[in-house]
Amino acid sequence: MPGTVLPPHPASAVPAPAPVRRAFALWMIAVTAGAFETVLAVGGMAADGSGSAGEIGVGLTIRLTVFTLAGWCAGCMRRGHGWARLALALGLGIGGTASMVTEPLRRLADGASVGALLSDIGALDLAFAVSRTLHVLAVLTAVILMFLPAANAYFTSARRSRTSADLCTER
């Protein structure tokens, strides 16, 4: 209705503290790094013919869904939604990190040395490794920041001022 002023979003009454804002920025860095890694992986698969169009399509669909949900959850987390903080911490902080480090750790456990792994690295692999390192560091740091005392107080305050019907909407 014209001229109608909506009340401010309850969580926006108090701005997000620095740890939450920084965690949001780090989640966006992680999503960007993940997208970059996907481009590198798909490019590599296309170049060496190691993946069919169907496999690549399914992988891209899954990753696009994860990146979209991660970005949405990060935005909801920044607005004080505790469920989003938990989803990010458990789903990507634990599950996502495990999926990113399992293969390198398995190779090391099988007896490969870091030196041997690095000696066979090409430019594409180096770009992927740098991005993956940035990705993992961004995720782990974001998880820590989301649970600092200032962040905890923000999520508690936001929960108290929010209606139960407010899942995570922009107004």
From TrEMBL:
The chain crosses the membrane at residues 24-44, 56-75, 82-101, 134-155. This is Uncharacterized protein. The keyword Membrane applies. Keywords: Membrane, Transmembrane, Transmembrane helix. It comes from Streptomyces qinglanensis.
